[in-house]
Fold this protein.
Amino acid sequence: MADRRKFLKSTIFSGLAVSTASLSSLSCSTPKEPKKPIVISTWNHGKEANAAAWEVLSKNGKAVDAVEKGVMVTENDPNNATVGIGGFPDRDGNVTLDACIMDENDNAGSVAFLQNFKNPISVARKVMDDTPHVMLVGEGAKKFALSKGFKEENLLTESSEKAWKNWLKNQDYEPEINIENHDTIGMVALDENGNLSGACTTSGAAWKMHGRVGDSPIIGAGLFVDNEIGAATATGLGEFVIKICGSHMIVELMRQGFSPQEACEQAVNRIVKKYPDSYKNLQVGFLALNKQGEYGAYSIHKGFNFAVRSNDQDELIDAGNYSG
């Protein structure tokens, strides 16, 4: 028995010695300095949105404030037919908006099927900051927005109404890759303090059924942020993003050690594999950003681009795509 105790003791301490040595060697390695602050967002309208976000980030502001201010630029642009005012309506002629936001503390706010308020992202921010809830929809979201001082206005511009009336002639609902699916601005940012946040806002698919909600206001689909790991956002035909919980999947892949680029590629490949009869006729794109300020992007089809802004970068980049 004494010999057995001696053997166990020596084995335990020998294991500890190895573990300690391993830990010592790990602690000697110099971690890579994160690239911060940085903001990335979907599509070419992301450059103007990033500029507004950068005004916050460059002054040591918080990522959550930056992403809200950033996407509001796109919401406020009446010439953008897929976000905010001027967004293409549903098949009944109603402009309905969806948005969500997440901060570095796992807080989230969302609104869906919101009408007559051009900045749904700010209403979503109020849901996050001022209520115990995550999502408000429809009439309830409208009443909440009014209670918070948001003003109603007609979001159907002359040009979007004209496009809707032209659509009514044939009522053909076939998504056009990188046109109708150009329907979101998703933005994620890492601030100077090393905190991540994200925002996503849209008027959704043009000519959708009244009441349809896509991925953009759904936490884990159109947007997900985990401040320990990274953040991701999506664009494209939202039904297919929802079906794989796309943004959450990407963050969890990064948790497992995948780079942002690899994680985005894996999410796209999941859609392609699960929906072999559908993916050729639809577009989905993903963006991801990790705690080191490393980013990635990938889409089903070519044509998806994204904007990056940091201390040494301000550009629009064409994302890679699935090649079959």
Summary: The two ends are 64 Å apart (CA to CA). The chain is about 35% helix and 20% strand. The longest strand covers residues 108-114.
